[in-house]
Design a protein that fits this description.
Largest sheet: 2 strands, antiparallel
Order of helices and strands: HHHHHHHHEEHHHEEHHHEHEHHHHHH
Strand order of the largest sheet: 1-2
Structural class: mainly alpha
Helix content: 55-70%
Mean pLDDT: 75
Radius of gyration: 23 Å
Number of helices: 21
Low-confidence stretches: 20-35, 40-53, 76-93, 346-350
Strand content: under 5%
Length: 487
């Protein structure tokens, strides 16, 4: 190994990555031994297709070629879920771009290491290679941050989202959240100068990178919390040693959570592909709400049919309903990817579609506020999500199809306002004082335009989308709505 690379590996990970100090780290601790891992590594090394990639955009030391080849092998399966046009884009065009673009190639290697960890429960076989590419990514992001260039916001978000994914799947959950917190602090240009009623392409990409990552991380954290409770463990997820979370998760996934495990692997496989879509001829469009809304309805029905004892022991996570929500989030994102030369949608189709970002955030808030399956969001991740939510609702309420999706937009807006009451009590919204007045105003305007004179009218709209028939907090949320519409 060249001296420069050996020194980098010796220093890997000791300080916080965004501190303005030299990047240093403790010696890495090896994860638990996992059966069949070495056999898989030998299979990758013997495969010659990756080792012939000499003309690539970055240094490929250690086992980089093997990891990149693993990324190619693991990308085949999920492409069957894409539409024919989507699969054509990814299959035909992504390889040359990935090899020639430094950031895309490094992302592919990091996500391959992440997928490997999640699949076998340990990164021991590729630990040094992973550390090398993670260090190089951190260096690149710190360099970009130092320029203060607003045009780099999307690129920075992309890299930080990858780092958050990789840290989390390596077991360092606190570091993953710190990475996401950096995204909240990034300045950005939100509107398209040519169309002030829509986001720039880069902003839409940044928002989706953040949401795909934060949804994944927060969902898995909630499952891990449930696993610890089911085992009557007194440990908090943040107090676990770095190797323990993935060991616990892997054990549970291989026994009771196999469906959820398949979805997580699918998400990781698709993640690096999503990064390169704009560069290989694709665009992101609005989505149909039915798949996500229907999955939330099933979650609500199953959750309210459990006994209190079952809820306490987190039996809900064994039913598969929660996994279906995440699958719907991924599926809707995939179906929103279209080639740039795709023929325009018909007006009737467009009328039924809505913002993917707004719908996903509303689903997250539903799981946090209504069925209360998710633990409360951390402050920065919540505020970043709400900033995206506010932006998307502002644009959605100005579109020509607003009357056709009025009930859905009211449901989304009300979940946003409901969440602000909780997070205001937690002291989370002091840095964003404009959020609550915004949501109160749009709830008042929507209620007026839709003729919602009484709480029963508003509740009927919520039930038409996704809402418990017998909600224990009905009086509480009624008070929130009445306060918003008061003169």
């Amino acid at each position: 190994i060249p001296l420069r690379e050996r020194r980098a590996l010796e220093k890997a990970g000791a300080t916080q990555p965004w501190e303005h100090v030299p990047w240093e780290a403790p010696s890495s601790s090896k994860g638990p031994e996992v059966p069949n891992t070495q056999a898989l590594v030998r299979q990758l090394i013997l495969s010659s297709s990756a080792t012939t990639l000499d003309c690539v955009a970055i240094d490929m030391p250690l086992k980089s070629h093997e990891l990149f080849n693993y990324s190619l092998l693991s990308t085949v399966k999920p492409l069957s879920h894409l539409s024919q046009s989507n699969a054509k884009i990814v299959n035909l065009d992504s390889m040359p771009f990935t090899i020639s673009d430094p950031e895309a190639l490094r992302n592919a290697i990091l996500m391959a290491a992440t997928h490997f960890t999640f699949k076998v429960g340990s990164l021991e076989a590729f630990e040094h290679t992973f550390l090398f590419h993670r260090i190089e990514t951190v260096r690149l992001v710190k360099k970009w941050l130092s320029t203060g260039d607003l045009t780099l916001s999307s690129a920075i978000t992309k890299q930080i989202a990858t780092l958050a994914y990789t840290e989390f799947c390596s077991g360092d959950m606190q570091m993953a959240e710190k990475h996401l917190n950096v995204i909240y602090a990034l300045p950005c240009r939100t509107t398209d100068p040519s169309n002030p009623n829509s986001k720039t392409r880069d902003q839409e990409l940044s928002d989706r990178y953040f949401l795909l990552t934060s949804t994944f991380i927060h969902g898995v954290q909630t499952v891990l919390h449930g696993i610890l409770r089911a085992e009557d463990s007194t440990e908090d997820k943040n107090s676990l040693s770095v190797s323990n979370p993935m060991r616990l998760m892997h054990k549970w996934y291989k026994s009771e959570g196999q469906y959820l495990h398949c979805l997580k692997l699918k998400a990781i496989r698709l993640f690096s592909t999503f990064f390169i879509l704009p560069d290989i001829g694709a665009r992101l469009t609005d989505v149909y709400s039915a798949s996500i809304v229907n999955s939330l309805r099933k979650v609500t029905d199953e959750f309210y049919n459990l006994t209190e004892a079952q809820k306490i022991h987190d039996d809900f996570w064994r039913t598969g309903a929660a996994a279906r929500v995440y699958d719907a989030v991924l599926e809707s994102h995939q179906t929103s990817i279209l080639p740039t030369d795709h023929e325009h949608e018909t007006i009737s189709d467009a009328e039924q579609k809505t913002s993917w970002c707004g719908l996903v955030i509303a689903a997250e808030l539903f799981l946090e506020q209504v069925v209360v399956l998710w633990r409360p969001f951390t402050k920065e991740i919540y505020l970043c999500s709400m900033r995206i939510f506010q932006r998307d609702l502002s644009f959605a309420l100005q579109k020509s199809n607003t009357p056709e999706i009025a009930e859905l937009l009211f449901w989304e807006s009300f979940l946003g306002l409901m969440s602000l009451y909780l997070h205001e009590k937690l002291g989370d919204v002091k840095r964003e004082p404009g959020l609550k007045p915004f949501f109160e105003r749009i709830i008042k305007e929507q209620s007026r335009d839709m003729g919602l004179a009484k709480w029963e009218d508003a509740r009927r709209v919520l039930l038409n989308i996704a809402w418990p028939l017998d909600f224990s907090e009905d009086d509480y949320v009624k008070g929130i709505w009445e306060a918003a519409i008061a003169d």
